[in-house]
Amino acid sequence: MTTHRFPHPVYSRHVLQPAYRDAQRYFFEPMLEAHEAHAIALAECGVIPFENAAAILSAVATIRAEGSQAYAYQPGVEDLFFRIEGRVMESAGMDYGGNLQLARSRNDLGHALARMAIRLRLLELGDALLALRTATMAQARRHLETLMPGYTHTQPAQPTTFAHYLAGVLTFLHRNQQGFFDAYREVNLSPLGAAALTGTGFPLDRQRVAELLGFDGVVVSTQHAIGGGDYLTDVAFATQALAVNLSRMTHDLLVWASQEANALRIDDSFIQISSIMPQKRNPVVLEHLRARLSRALGFAQSVVLQCHNIPYGDTQDIEDEILPPLFEALNALQESVELYTAFFEGLSLNVEHLRRRAGEGFTTATELADALVREAGLPFRAAHKVVATLVQDAVNAGLTSSQLTLAMLQEAARSVLGRVLPLSEAQFRQALDPAHFIAVRTGLGGVAPAATAAVLDNLEQCAEQDRAALFAAHQRLIDSQERRQQRIAAFLSPTASNP
After folding, report:
1. Is residue 449 situated within a structural domain?
2. What's the predicted TM-score (pTM) here?
3. Separation CA 109–CA 397 (nearest Å)
4. Do 207 and 322 fall into the same domain?
C-alpha cells in the first residue's frame, strides 16, 4: 500500500490548491483587515500589550505591501491563513506573532472573510442593478403612449403600452433589489469572537471588532455564527428571484425581436449575422442572457443544495466548497444585469407597427363589453356573451377585428338576447379603438399614460431611496476603514505609548 505525507497529491490538486487560489482572490485583503481589527481589539481589551499589537500591525502592513501574489500556494501549507500567520510570526517574532490567533479560530475568521467578500459583491451588484433600473426607466418614460398588444397565455389579449409593460419590469427590479438589501443585512453581521463555536474565555469586545470592520452588528449566537449558512442561502434566493424575473422578460423580448413580431430593433452592436444567410439579424445578446441567467440559477441552486442535510456546525460544505458556486452565481447575474443595461440603452421600437397591431386579434373586445354595460345597460356577463358571439362569428367568417361592424354586433345581440342594443355607430367605433381602450384605464396602476406615469414616479422615488441606502452601505465600509487606519497609525506612531 502506497502511503503519502499530508497532503496527498490528488487532494492537493483538487481541494487545497483551488481553495487556496480562491482565498488569494477573495480573502487576501479581508484577512489582513480582520487581522488588524483583531489585534487592535485584543490590545484595547487588555488581552495583549500595546507593543504586541503594534508588532502584529507592522507585520500585516509588510504583508500588504508584498501583495497576494507573493503568497503562492506551497505544498505542506494547508491554506492561505496558515501562510499569512507564518509570515506574521516571522516578521513580528513568535512571542508577538504567536498571539495573532488568540481568542479566535479559523472557524469564525473563515465565515467573517466570506461575509466581507460577499458584501462587496452585493454592493457592486446593487450599483449595477440601479443602473439597469435607470436605463429601463428612460425607456418607459419614452414610451408612455406607445401602443402595443398585450398578451396573456402568449395570445393577444388587450392593448397596452410599452411603458406599462416596463412599469411591471421596474416593479420586480425594485422588489428584487429589496431582496438583495435583505440578504446584505444578514451577510453584514460579524461572527468574530465566536471562535471555534462556543466563544472565547478572553474579554474580547465582539462589537468593537465588528465596528472596526464595517459590520452592522454581530451574530450573537456563537453556535449560529459558525453553523449557520442562511446568509449564503439568502444571497442564493435573491439571485434566483432576479434571474427568474429577468429570464421571463428575456422570453418576451426574444419573441418581439422576431421578424414576424417586428416589435423592436436591437442596436446593431448586439446583432450577429449569419455565415450563409445575408438577411439575418440574429438577436444573440438575448440568447446569451437567457443562458447566463440559467447559469446563475444553477449555481445558486448548488448553494442551496450544499446547505441541505449537513450538520449544523463547522463543515466544509458551507466554507471553502460553497464559495465557487456562490461567486459564479453572482458573477453570472452581474454580467446579465450589465448586459441588459446596455441593451436597454440602445433599444428602439417600431412604434407605428406596434400601434397598428395593438387592436388586432380582437384585443379591444373587453372594452366593447364594458361599453355595452355603460351605454346599453347590460349586466357584464350578458355583455361578455354578446361580444364573444360577435368575435366567434367573425372568426368563422374569416374576418379580422378591423372588419367588425355594428350590424354584426346587433346580429349577435339578437342571437343571445333576442333584441338589438341601443348603441350608436360612434360608440361602437370608439369601443374598438385601442387608443380609447388605453385612455379610459386611468385607475391606480392602469395603462393610461397618466396612470402609468404615476407608477413610474413612485418607482423613481423608490430608486432614489435605494440609491441612498447603497451609498450609506458603501460609506459605512469606507468610514470603518478610515477609523481602523487611524487606530493603526496611533499604534505604529514612533511616539506612541499606549493609544
Report:
1. no
2. 0.93
3. 75
4. yes
Q: What is the C-alpha separation between 257 and 154, in angstroms, rounded?
A: 15
Verify that 249 and 176 share a domain, yes or no.
yes
Q: Give yes or no: residues 98 and 185 share one domain.
A: no
CATH number at residue 333: 1.20.200.10
Please tell me the total count of domains within the chain: 3
Residue 466 within a domain: yes
Name the phi and psi angles at 218, rounded to 5.
-120, 155
User: Last residue of a domain, which of 432, 448, 467?
Assistant: 432
Based on the fold, state whether residues 464 and 340 are members of the same structural domain: yes
Task: Select from 110, 71, 79 the least CA-distant residue to 229.
Answer: 110
What are the distances in angstroms from CA 370 to CA 374, 382, 383, 387, 438? 6, 11, 7, 10, 13
- Are 206 and 307 in a shared domain? yes
Residues 88 and 133 in one domain: no
**Contact by Cβ (8 Å): 499, 53:** no
Please state, in angstroms and rounded to a whole number, the distance separating the CA atoms of residues 472 and 322. Answer: 29
Can you list the alpha helix ranges (DSSP code H) found in 307-447? Answer: 323-346, 351-357, 365-376, 380-396, 406-417, 425-432, 434-439
Q: State whether 341 and 397 are in the same domain.
A: no
Question: In this structure, what C-alpha cell is assigned to residue 196?
Answer: 471555534
Q: Domain of 296?
A: 108-140+162-350+459-478
Domain membership flag for residue 360: no
| pLDDT tens across the length of the chain (499 residues) | 667 778 888 888 898 888 888 888 999 999 999 999 999 999 999 999 999 999 999 999 999 999 999 998 888 777 898 899 999 999 999 999 999 999 999 999 999 999 999 999 999 999 999 999 999 999 999 999 999 999 999 888 899 999 999 999 999 999 999 999 999 999 999 999 999 999 999 999 999 999 999 999 999 999 999 999 999 999 999 999 999 999 999 999 999 998 888 899 888 887 766 655 555 577 889 999 999 999 999 999 999 999 999 999 999 999 999 999 999 999 999 999 999 999 999 999 999 999 999 988 888 899 999 999 999 999 999 999 999 999 999 999 999 988 999 999 999 999 999 999 999 999 999 999 999 999 999 999 999 999 999 999 999 999 999 999 999 999 999 999 999 999 999 999 877 667 6
Q: What is the domain-level CATH number for residue 78?
A: 1.10.275.10
Integer Cα distance of 316 and 314 in angstroms? 7
Q: Does residue 358 lie within any of the structural domains?
A: no
Residues 226 and 328 in one domain: yes
On whether the CB atoms of residues 112 and 190 are closer than 8 A, the answer is yes
Q: Give CA–CA dist 437/358, Å, rounded.
A: 10
Q: Which residue has the cell 460579524?
A: 190
* Contact assessment for residue 205 and residue 45, using Cβ atoms and an 8 Å cutoff: yes
